[in-house]
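QA checklist item 7 of 12: single-chain prediction sanity check.
[x] sequence parsed
[x] length recorded as 138
[x] structure emitted
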Amino acid sequence: MISLTDSQKIGMGLTGFGVFFLFFGMMLFFDKALLAIGNILFVSGLSFVIGLERTFRFFFQRHKFKATSFFLGGVVVVLIGWPIIGVVLEIYGFFLLFRGFFPVAVGFIRRVPVLGSLLSLPGISALVDKIGESNTMV
């Protein structure tokens, strides 16, 4: 089992609550307040889990400048009060930031018994193959 420090445990809780508030805010027709709280909790939780320095190094790498701009710009747009536009920007930035992780995640999910068989269905497998292919270096 992985041992976590107290600050990492707090970060996991903050990140979990952030994801919950983001999901709940989208379910309630893009409620500005819930999305803003979710964004703040998610980013602060990420900082607690991996550390402040590593968070800055992750977001502000030269080759991730576009992705970081979209993600953090979406957070700012949500905080300003345009939730739909902000969430679209955040999602695009999120996919750009974590696109190097998607092949690893798809490979892992394909080995899970029930989920692997679902990903092998004809309509879903083409989409998953497109998401799971890695053509960029991270």
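[x] summary fact logged: The mean pLDDT is 91.
[ ] second reviewer sign-off
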